[in-house]
Amino acid sequence: MFTNQHHLKHLLRPHHYTSEEQYRAELRHLFQPAWHPVATTSDLARPGDFITLDLLETPFIIRNFDGELRAFLNVCPHRHSKLTEKPRGHAEKLRCQYHGWEFNKDGGTGKIPDAKVFRPWDRENSCLKKFRVDTCGDLVFVNFSASGPGLREWLAPVWDVWRHYGGAYRHAATWEKEFACNWKVVLENSLESYHIPEVHPHTFKEFPAEENVWHELTERFSSFKTLPPSDFAGRAQAWMVRRMGQPVTNEYWHQVLHPHATGSSLDSFRMMQCVFPTGPATCRYRCIFFTLRGTRTNPLAWVLYRTLKSIATAIGKKVFAEDGSIYLGIQRGMEASPFPGVIGTREERVYQFQKYVLDNTKGPRELPQAPAPSEPTPVCAG
Predict the structure, then answer these.
(1) What is the pLDDT of residue 370?
(2) Are 327 and 320 in contact (CB under 8 A)?
(3) Do 114 and 187 belong together in one domain?
(4) What is the pLDDT along the chain (382 residues), one digit of tens a residue?
(5) What's the distance, Cα to Cα, between the start and end of the chain in Å?
(6) Same-domain status, 76 and 171
(7) Are residues 171 and 141 in the same domain?
(8) What is the domain range of residue 262?
(9) Are residues 313 and 188 in the same domain?
(10) Count of the separate structural domains present in the chain
(11) Which CDD domains match (predicted)?
């Protein structure tokens, strides 16, 4: 049930995974306008809670101000120090670690030590730089652009699904890892099931038959759905889900909102994954993992929740590690490859993603399409 019936061109050339020019074009045209999932509401539950991250060469801080989440550039306008180096924490005031300048929820200055030495006060240049922040379910998103669509509009293809990340599903773990590869290597790997037998022989084991695959392909979004086998693990999951008060669908979904936000789900879990470029050949991959808590509060449901949280998180990290083991080899192959590449119908979501990259980085002026080779120069020996 693939959309395409014939193999497809590999639209990106190997140098598009290694060049500084391409990296800069993608930051400008793909990532600057995007909304980025960075945390959960439980990370910022109390007034005064904060987290900091460095993404897209931008240090930022998100803080809870009496129940309102606000995001700012993590740089003090006084002498350019980071406000804080701590990755997370709790503080009564948003205060710079260097000279103690304090800031309110609008980014304006509060208490300034020995303020009289700064007369006349330059109010315009003394405020923190604001970023947009919003939530979908229990997911917290930040946007570095001052204009553009709001979060709900941006997430339109997936809003109704991702707003349920939370509720009956509780945040179980967040993990991330730096990889020595271009961010597109990670994203494209997630877009196809063709690699499953080689990379996941003990977890997923084999890719589903074509008649058990449903693809949806649009300009900004693609999805994959399959029905996992009714084996012992599947039956055990269904038994647990019912006893925790949730309906059983036995559907696996994988949804990607371009350029980089990925949601995957079974009845037992919800996972948000996002890959951020840190350089032409480096990236950071971040996973926010939720497991089913359900609606029942009896002792059995609680035990099942704790058991499911432990097992599902361990499996999620194992799959993450299996995929991570091949990224460096792919990147090194990219850097040496003489081939134009080819995309099979099972990998058609990769083609759709590559087309998105081409169409949204100012096309031929910044990213020329790969020319069709007249004759293949490399020869495979039998």
Answers:
(1) 46
(2) no
(3) no
(4) 798 989 999 999 998 999 999 999 999 999 999 999 999 999 999 999 999 999 999 999 999 999 999 999 999 999 999 999 999 999 999 999 999 999 999 999 999 999 999 988 888 889 999 999 999 999 999 999 999 999 999 999 999 999 999 999 999 999 999 999 999 999 999 999 999 999 998 888 899 999 999 999 999 999 999 999 888 889 999 999 999 999 999 999 999 999 999 999 999 999 999 999 999 999 999 999 999 999 999 999 999 999 999 999 999 999 999 999 999 999 999 999 999 999 999 999 999 999 999 999 865 444 444 444 444 444 444 3
(5) 32
(6) no
(7) no
(8) 8-33+148-365
(9) yes
(10) 2
(11) RHO_alpha_C, Rieske_RO_Alpha_N
pLDDT in tens, 333-369: 999 999 999 999 999 999 999 999 999 986 544 444 4
Average pLDDT score, the chain: 92
Structure tokens at 318: 């194992």
Q: What is the CATH number of the domain that holds 266?
A: 3.90.380.10
